[in-house]
């Protein structure tokens, strides 16, 4: 069959979990199945690249204001033309804005098409409520979130199948009346992300002084990821600890944080697009740190754990599921002091043993092959069955009602 990925949440540089997902899915489909795959993403201009069973489509789109790497497709007609030309059997939507309705409208014209949605971002809480509270206060933000929930109900109710990345999000969706939801864990390449990739000279290459722990973060340097909280945490570490920190990634806060960390043992070298280089960076560090409160899964966390690192984070979102007892320390959201205390506690303890336990935890539970085998062999067939049932219901209605309607017109 021809499978279609459709998303706004892609960036060639600085991309997050969805960009990783698209890359790993392409590998799985081409290496492990006989299916074809078309992936439609935003780009600087219209572009179609066909290579065997893979079709890469970029739809020209303007950059998102304040985000140096992301673009937002408004030309839904161009997306519809691509769908009409290639006629996918399954469309998987990986973002909540605009494009899901392009898929829904296409399915109305082609009812045999099955629609699947991946709930990769908890947008009513992460985007709508968080930003609304900052701009307008809690009461207005609550009202805006209610509108976002209503939009989610309307949008995802039109899909044949939906998957969430953890059980709490599935339960939340169920509370909103969205019940046709599977839970799909994401994965990590444990051969690529491994303690064996450690470079003893990595810290020296970054020009970071100090004899204590090397902390590392990998992700967008922006408000959503709360990257500035990591700098606040670092300032609270005692100087005699000799800590250093590297923050890998790009985003609208990066320039500001570079200015604010002058004189500190903190490096912000930018986005690392070489996955092997990222693996080396993680394996060459000591503790992974993240202040993100709204992770729906946390690919960067399990990549760090696979590299043998304990994690210091916050007890919110998917983080408690990623970092169970014994694999790190979690504290309150936006509490830089608690995070600093946790870093010191790990460093004083047997952090290497904790990191080894974290790797073992990931090796036993997370695999991209397992992720996409479940998607292709369970989620997609369930969606296709529902599409078939939907078409059958239409045919049954037509069989019983059309003769009556014809007689009434006659």
Automatic annotation (TrEMBL):
Entry superkingdom: Bacteria
Domain (Glycosyl transferase family) ranges: 202-359
InterPro entries: Glyco_trans_1 (IPR001296), Glyco_trans_4-like_N (IPR028098), Glycosyltransferase_grp1 (IPR050194)
Gene3D superfamilies: Glycogen Phosphorylase B
Statement: the UniProt record of this protein carries the keyword Coiled coil: no
GO molecular function, one term: glycosyltransferase activity
Keyword Nucleus attributed: no
Record key words, sorted: Transferase
Residue ranges of domain Glycosyltransferase subfamily 4-like N-terminal in the record: 16-192
Pfam families, A to Z: Glyco_transf_4, Glycos_transf_1
PANTHER family xref list: SULFOQUINOVOSYL TRANSFERASE SQD2
Name of the protein in its database record: Glycosyltransferase involved in cell wall biosynthesis
Organism expressing this protein natively: Novosphingobium sediminicola
Lineage: Bacteria, Pseudomonadati, Pseudomonadota, Alphaproteobacteria, Sphingomonadales
């Amino acid at each position: 069959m021809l499978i279609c990925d459709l998303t706004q949440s892609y960036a060639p540089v600085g991309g997050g979990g969805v960009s990783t997902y698209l890359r790993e899915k392409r590998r799985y489909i081409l290496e492990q199945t006989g299916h074809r795959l078309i992936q439609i993403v935003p780009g600087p201009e219209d572009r179609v690249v066909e290579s065997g069973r893979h079709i890469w489509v970029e739809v020209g789109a303007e950059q998102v204001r304040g985000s140096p790497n992301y673009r937002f497709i408004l030309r839904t007609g161009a997306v519809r033309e691509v769908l009409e030309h290639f006629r996918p059997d399954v469309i998987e939507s990986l973002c909540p804005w605009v494009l899901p309705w392009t898929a829904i409208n296409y399915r109305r014209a082609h009812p045999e098409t099955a629609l699947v949605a991946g709930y990769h971002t908890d947008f009513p809480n992460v985007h709508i409520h968080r930003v609304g509270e900052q701009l307008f206060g809690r009461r207005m933000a609550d009202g805006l979130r209610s509108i976002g929930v209503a939009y989610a109900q309307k949008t995802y109710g039109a899909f044949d199948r939906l998957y969430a990345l953890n059980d709490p999000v599935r339960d939340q969706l169920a509370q909103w009346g969205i019940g046709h939801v599977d839970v799909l864990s994401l994965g990590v390449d444990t051969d690529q992300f491994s303690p064996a990739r450690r470079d003893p000279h990595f810290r020296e290459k970054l020009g970071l002084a100090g004899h204590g722990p090397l902390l590392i973060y990998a992700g967008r340097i922006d408000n959503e990821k709360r990257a500035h909280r990591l700098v606040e945490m670092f300032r609270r570490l005692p100087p005699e600890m000799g800590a250093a920190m590297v923050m890998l990634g790009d985003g609208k806060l990066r320039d500001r944080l570079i200015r604010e960390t002058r004189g500190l043992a903190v490096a912000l070298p930018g986005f690392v697009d070489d996955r092997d280089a990222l693996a080396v960076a993680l394996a060459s560090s000591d503790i992974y740190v993240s202040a993100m409160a709204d992770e729906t899964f946390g690919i960067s966390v399990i990549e760090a754990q696979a590299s043998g690192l304990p994690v210091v984070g916050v007890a919110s979102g998917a983080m408690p599921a990623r970092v169970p007892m014994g694999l790190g320390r979690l504290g309150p959201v936006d509490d830089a002091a608690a995070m600093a205390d946790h870093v010191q506690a790990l460093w004083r303890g047997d952090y290497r043993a904790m990191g080894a336990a974290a790797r073992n935890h990931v090796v036993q539970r997370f695999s991209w092959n397992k992720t996409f085998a479940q998607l292709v062999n369970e989620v997609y067939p369930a969606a296709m069955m529902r599409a078939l049932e939907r078409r059958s219901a239409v045919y049954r209605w037509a069989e019983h009602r059309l003769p009556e309607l014809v007689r009434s017109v006659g």
